[in-house]
């Protein structure tokens, strides 16, 4: 007869544990989609990577063109087009092998050249969020592989300091390379750096 109370206790414990895990996943999902515009949040895929293997773990399968990862160990929350999934997945696997950033970048360039991963899509928009004001808090990034400032009429002078003061404007980084991109600090939202 002691079996029934023990079984009941075990079932209740499993239900509570499952509920906490579900709440935890829901909290991660809500946090992960914060960098996105409102109309993309509900249908975005949310995933994370296993730190030891770099394998993708889907927390919520979405139905639109965007996928997001919850805040990482550096404090960044990132969302990107689903078209970049193969690049992100390979990067995570290399990082799990303790590969250095420069080596990861070189491996990704090589993998792209060999057709193992898709190249960056020109004009693809990624989103990044950071919680503390010592970095740009809300940043959108447009991929413009191999573009130059002359082609796009973009400035290249860093807007980091202005962005930290809530007055950032766009600028181009890594011009003329496969990693060329436009940094677009988003000002004036609850998630942005406060104006000084």
What is the fold's blueprint, element by element?
Blueprint: H1 3-32, H2 38-41, E1 45-49, E2 56-60, E3 66-69, E4 76-81, H3 85-96, H4 101-113, E5 125-130, E6 138-143, H5 149-152, H6 160-164, E7 171-173, E8 181-185
Parallel strand pairs: 1-3
Antiparallel strand pairs: 1-2, 3-4, 4-5, 5-6, 6-8, 7-8
Helix pairs in contact: 3-4
Summed up:
The chain is α+β, with helices and mostly antiparallel strands. Helix content is 35%, strand content 20%. It contains six helices and eight strands, in the order H-H-E-E-E-E-H-H-E-E-H-H-E-E.
Biggest sheet strand line-up: 2-1-3-4-5-6-8-7
Q: How far apart lie the N and C ends?
A: 69 Å
Strand percentage, roughly? 15-25%
SS-based structural class? alpha+beta
Structure description:
The chain has 196 residues and is of the alpha+beta class. The chain has 6 helices and 8 strands. An 8-stranded mixed sheet has the order 2-1-3-4-5-6-8-7. The protein starts with a helix and ends in an 11-residue tail after the last strand. The model is unreliable at 3-22 (pLDDT under 50).
């Amino acid at each position: 007869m002691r079996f029934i109370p023990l079984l009941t206790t075990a079932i209740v414990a499993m239900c509570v544990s499952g509920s906490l895990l579900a709440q935890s996943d829901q909290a991660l999902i809500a946090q992960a989609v914060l960098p996105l515009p409102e109309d993309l949040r509900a249908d975005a895929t949310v995933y994370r990577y296993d730190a030891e293997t770099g394998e993708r773990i889907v927390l919520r399968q979405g139905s639109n063109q965007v996928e997001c990862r919850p805040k990482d160990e550096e404090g960044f929350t990132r969302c990107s087009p689903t078209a970049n999934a193969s690049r992100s997945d390979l990067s995570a696997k290399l990082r799990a092998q303790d590969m250095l950033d420069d080596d990861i970048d070189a491996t990704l360039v090589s993998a792209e050249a060999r057709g193992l991963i898709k190249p960056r899509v020109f004009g693809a928009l990624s989103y990044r969020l950071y919680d503390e004001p010592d970095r740009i808090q809300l940043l959108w990034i447009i991929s413009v592989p191999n573009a130059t400032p002359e082609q796009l009429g973009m400035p290249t002078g860093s807007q980091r300091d202005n962005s930290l003061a809530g007055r950032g404007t766009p600028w181009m980084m890594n011009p003329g390379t496969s990693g060329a991109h436009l940094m677009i600090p988003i000002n004036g939202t609850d998630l942005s750096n406060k104006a000084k």
